[in-house]
Amino acid sequence: MTKTIRALMGASAVVALTSGAFAETITIATVNNGDMIRMQGLTADFTAKTGHEVEWVTLEENVLRQRVTTDISTKGGQFDIMTIGMYETPIWGKNGWLVPLDDLPAEYDVDDILPAMRGGLSYDGTLYAAPFYGESSMIMYRTDLMEAAGLDMPDAPTWDFVRDAAIAMTDKDNEIYGICLRGKAGWGENMAFLTATANAFGARWFDENWTPQFDTPQWKEALTFYLDLMDQAGPPGASNNGFNENLSLFQQGKCGMWIDATVAASFVTNADESTVADKVGFALAPDTGLGKRGNWLWAWALGIPAGTQKEDAAKQFIEWATSKEYLALVAENEGWANVPPGSRTSLYENPEYAQVPFAKMTLDSINSADPLNPTVDPVPYVGVQFVAIPEFAGFATEVGQEFSAALAGQQTADEALAKAQALTADAMDAAGY
Amino acid sequence: MARAVTTQRKTLNTIIAWVIGLVIFFPILWIIILSFKSEGDAIRPPLEVLTSSWTFDSYAVVQERSDYFKHFVNSVTLSVGSTLLGLIIAVPAAWAMAFVPSKSTRNILMWMLSTKMLPAVGVLYPIYLLFIRLGLLDSRIGLVVVLMLINLPIIIWMLYTYFKEIPGEILEAARMDGATLREEILYVLTPMAIPGMASTVLLNIILAWNEAFWTLNLTAAKAAPLTAFIASYSSPEGLFYAKLSAASTMAIAPILIMGWFSQKQLVRGLTFGAVK
């Protein structure tokens, strides 16, 4: 064998090996939210930089949750990256189902991730999923209706002010309702809102011994306040309303105020979809003076299931999709208002992003929620609007059904709370707490 | 007089039939209407939806964002494949039960039907683990088998009912003429049972086309049919009715058209034997 042939063979072997190592196709499971759709559109940039191709599996949120939970718990290996939330991440991290993201390169600047997000996506101090976008909740209100009612919305209102304003803005004959709030049953629907609200009233899911707390005066006050407010100033059929139903009511000009996810700000101010786009103001979620506000904290994050064959390529994708450069790439292609919010400190230090009307209020809302210390009294759990234990999704949805039935007038607040207490206690007993 | 009553009755029956038909079809009609609206218009009150402007935007977005053809081919493969595979197993089974019944035939039939009463999610984990072991996750072969197994009880029941209507004497006569079992089933039984078999095939293609539990849970990127295509257009945060409606219309159109053209066979097959 001549030297030339040997050299050629060696070279081709190197090419074969490197191309085999580099050109992978990774499969990513995700939800159909605007920021994810934009990410899919920009994947060519990732492929150009790394050579890796991406296959997307987009599913409805509940289907996705069931689908990825089945896959990760059985080590099915169908996905190399999963889009998961702040609820799943610490639980899955604890189970050893996710690859720890503790070796991110220096240029990724992991310290730039907002502390609240990093805390909520870690278990035992180790980051298990990188935030793609984060959100909190805040008040979105109609500036014109507020002015007509002779009121001035403070940046950080109390629940009493919100109630008085809602009643003053309500004009049921003209289908204007002072406040639109979630009522549809589900741990991520009405219970997200009510758990966060209860935090502001000094209530909590469990005491430090994991005893349910629905029999406390704080829960009674929180639930009664919500039911009375919705009775006086809420839209009809509110027990069926979730995020999208309230969004459509607000966009049609039927709500004076709406307290919900900060991500809604970009929808209600979008003149193509909203009839009230130029009349929307923002304020922090209300409090009752006890030191906690009723706003939640959530992140859609990217995690890598343990056991994937393509861990390196998956890590490269996460580094790309949650980097500072990606935010700049979106800004360049779609404008600053469409940059995925709530993940990095540097975004909020960017003077161009500061021009976006809801940027500051989103950051303030995120910063005022602390998943590690969510309530007035101490609790044994992590999570602002949820309790990060595997059983929570099940019993919280049942509690949500009781509260939704109370909103629909099928039972009193006392009855709903008694049932909530009993079924949560049963579930916790069965789970061995 | 008698004639007038009949005409009145007929008119009344026709009106009632149309009203019931429209009520049943209305959700599909509304989906089709919404698919030609903008997202902003799609959430307006019903009357405003009808009077707002029409647009193809949602179809353009869906076309651009998803690979409709890939999902369509998967749907066709899964529904036709599972139905044909089901027939191969069901025809001999139904023949045996219809023409050579034993004491336990009735019980076997009931037992087969009882498997339909088990909630699918109850066996999700066992089947998922089996699929991992066999390397069948996200494969069309695996799904064809699962969909076939799910619909097999219905195929056997339907064929059994049709076969029962065929006089056993005809088969006996064929046997006396020297037909083998294979010839008896292929050349005597099958031609007589064609209407029934046609409606069985059509109904099972429709059932497999619409199946949305296993097709979502056992697929990822490669074998996903149109049910996954629809599921990708629902959003927890943001307006999506128009795009979801466009995706749904595109997904149901082929099966709706097939049902339209084959409605005669479907109705004839489904009512076959009902008069006796």
Spans of chain A with pLDDT under 50 lasting ≥5 residues?
Answer: 12-20
Order of helices and strands of chain B: HHHHHHHHHHHHHH
Quote the CATH topology of the largest domain in chain A: D-Maltodextrin-Binding Protein, domain 2
Computed over alpha carbons, the radius of gyration of chain A is 24 Å
Largest β sheet strand count, sense and barrel closure of chain B: none
The helix content of chain B is over 70%
Keywords (chain A): Signal
Organism (chain A): Sinisalibacter aestuarii
Family (chain A): Belongs to the bacterial solute-binding protein 1 family.
Protein name (chain A): Sugar ABC transporter substrate-binding protein
Provide an overview of this structure.
Chain B: Belongs to the binding-protein-dependent transport system permease family. Chain B: It is a multi-pass membrane protein. Chain B: Keywords: Cell membrane, Membrane, Transmembrane, Transmembrane helix, Transport. The complex is a heterodimer of chains A (433) and B (276). Chain A has 18 helices and 10 strands. Chain A is an alpha/beta fold. Chain A folds into 2 domains: 192 residues, D-Maltodextrin-Binding Protein, domain 2 (3-Layer(aba) Sandwich), CATH 3.40.190; 218 residues, Periplasmic binding protein-like II (D-Maltodextrin-Binding Protein, domain 2), CATH 3.40.190. In chain A, helix 9 packs across helix 10 and helix 17 runs antiparallel to helix 18. The N and C termini of chain A lie far apart (72 Å). With 276 residues, chain B is mainly alpha-helical. Chain B has 2 domains: 57 residues, no CATH class; 166 residues, Orthogonal Bundle (MetI-like fold). In chain B, 76% of the residues lie in helices and 0% in strands. Chain B contains 14 helices and no strands. In chain B, helix 5 runs parallel beside helix 8 and helix 10 crosses helix 14. The two termini of chain B are 32 Å apart. The mean pLDDT of chain B is 89.
